[in-house]
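Sanity check record (used in CI):
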Amino acid sequence: MGRILAIDYGTKRTGLAVTDPMQIIASGLTTVETKELITYLKTYVDTEGVEKFVVGEPKQMDNTASESEVYIQKFLEKMVKEFPNIPIVRVDERFTSKMAFQTMIDSGLKKKQRQNKALVDEISATLILQSYLASNF
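Expected output for Putative pre-16S rRNA nuclease:
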């Protein structure tokens, strides 16, 4: 059984989260500059074995696609070319950034630490992955 890797895609930074090999626990992995993302993913997939990608799907409150979906679609086209044998699943990511910020507050992080946008992206990816895992059990 391979890992599931979640992606919270952003135009500048992209948060990543991953499951354990048994696909039970979702953990934050890192945040990568988006321009380096494909290179990072190639290395990670080669060394860790990824069974599936879960990519956040930003939606508006009325269920229509968010403005950032245009960029995500271009990224997904690259993903399909680079990783043709790894399925990609989309998961609604509404409110994940707000939930990530609240998680940071609840865990007692200081204000300075909560301003770390890379950490917010990584936590958001973890929440996307947890949502996917919960919906598939």
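Strands lie at 3-8, 13-19, 26-33, 50-57, 88-92. If this sentence no longer matches the regenerated tokens, the check is flagged for review.
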